[in-house]
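DATA SHEET
Item: assembly model
Revision: 1
Owner: S.N.
Input lines:
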Amino acid sequence: MTESKKPVLETRNLGITFGGLKAVQDFNIQIFEGELVGLIGPNGAGKTTVFNMLTGVYLPTVGSVILNGEVLNGKKPHQVVSSGVARTFQNIRLFKQMSVIDNVKAAITKDIKYGMVDAMFRTPKFWKVEHELTEKAMDLLSIFKLEGKADQLAANLPYGQQRKLEITRALATDMRLLLLDEPAAGMNPTETAELLECINAIRDRFGISILLIEHDMSLVMNICERIQVIDYGLTIASGLPEEIAKDPKVIAAYLGE
Amino acid sequence: MKKRTGKGYIINTAVIAVIIVAFAFIKSAFGGNEQFRLIIVPSLWQCCYLIILAASLNLILGFLGQLSLGHCGFMAIGAYAAALISLAFQRAGVFTEKAGPAFVLVLIGCILAAGILAALVGLLVGIPALRLKGDYLAIITLGFGMIIVNIINNIPFAGQEGLSLGSASASLYKNGLGFGTASKVTYLWVALIVTLICLTMMFMFIRSKYGRAIKAIRDDEIAASASGINTSYYKIFTFTFSAFFAGIAGALYACANATLSTSSFAFTNGGILNSTFIVVMVVLGGMGSLTGSVVSAIVMFFVNYQIKNGLWVKSLPGFLGGIFAYPMLVYAIILIAVIMFRPRGIFGTYEFSLLNFVRDIKEHRAKKALQKAGNKEAKSND
Ligand SMILES: Nc1ncnc2c1ncn2[C@@H]1O[C@H](COP(=O)(O)OP(=O)(O)OP(=O)(O)O)[C@@H](O)[C@H]1O
Ligand SMILES: [Mg+2]
């Protein structure tokens, strides 16, 4: 990581209060191109809240989110997506009553260049775009080996594959920055290892940056290039994995004072 | 993946052609039959607009996942728009008899205009209303349905004499479209084709990016917006699109009835045209299945017909007969029964497709043939 590079995502003194509760304060982070950064902290520290502010679900009370020099605050979630940020959720949120492939196709919103008239009359343009969408979706599904399940209902997938489908759907948005909220939650060690491999594969293939929330310390220490730790909404440490592991404040936060 | 070919088109076109030929045949064979003219044809007209109503509300209820109780309001707009516009043309002397190419043109124009006007109002109502969700949306759309009826009641030219100013009553006696028995038979094809076109348009809608987007919103709105779907846009679009068809259904209603009265569109109306009845049709057929809406519209038409005209209903003893005196009660019971015993409706989200149907039959035959061959082999081995 060279400091002269411009960050993909940058936040400046980001903060939000719910009623009297200061859920997140003075949150500053920089993520550079192709980087994998970890965001960790105890339960209720404010990690998911940070994601919600980055993606336009919550409007920050103070501070700003800057993506490639463009201010994201106040943008709606779908506008944030079209700026190139996609996410997954801590509690899986799929389109349960839709097929696996439609889950992915629904998220490819950028290059659909047909309108109502094409849809009503099934013009050649319609078929061409739909074929392209199907091809692209199948291609993305093959990353997590889900192509065999394309026509199944998303609700019928086993838990691990639902997590994978959610990541696939995020990839379908053509993002440059991927936010993963505890992707390994509820997975067994083999599944987690497999997920790790896939995350690396995705980075190599798409060259995207990733911000990862994770409770599994070994996973975070293994794959993250940098880690930022928050507790009670405040950043208590940030740096390389080795530094974080030794940081007394982090140890105190995790073991409880 | 299955590759799309022109097969579906060919099969569907062939079936439509068969229907049209069969229809022409039936009309020439039974055209003089009293039963056909007085019962079957009016029933078909009613079924047509009920099917359009149910299917179009299903777009909002079943596919978009929003509760709207004001669908009859859009239908009322369509009905009055078609009636008044046709009346204006009649007064202007474009047509005098309900026959001839000029009349057919006016008829088709009125149906289209009814849809467009209802869609415009749908857009205006949808923009603020769809900021709300769930019960709040239900209440605001319910209120909207009532407001529409009241507004029409107070429009001077919507009164008894139609476009003659000053008589502000709810009823429109001289309806430019209002078909008598003979015209209903003559123009049945218009109703059937309009219904077919509307259904096709709705199918095309749900089997495109629009359908994917609104189903995604139904399943998880937060995830949909986090996947780049502009949820407000698709919600308003679907609401408008659905109102368009409700307006068309209203125009067909105006054709099938010599008199229009706002009270038949009121929420409290015990007949077939209230928003609860339409909701029951959608829920019974299956939220998220247009096929279900078509079937349940026909089923509910029969239920309503039996309640109104069935001799067996009149011979029911005291208490039971009492229930049937209040059709709304029967619909409510049907709704509760469906929700208790078959919450996803008759069809769930199943859609009938001729192509798949043909394929399934072929597969079934192939399987049977295989089994037979297997049996023979087993026997010869014995
Ligand atoms: N919409 C909200 N309204 C009120 N309080 C909220 C809201 N969202 C989050 N909070 C509060 O903000 C704090 C941080 O929550 P957050 O979900 O971000 O924690 P987290 O770090 O993701 O925890 P976990 O590891 O359990 O997922 C919590 O105290 C939570 O109760
Ligand atoms: Mg969280």
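QC remark: The domain at 84-216 of chain A is CATH 3.40.50.300 (Rossmann fold).
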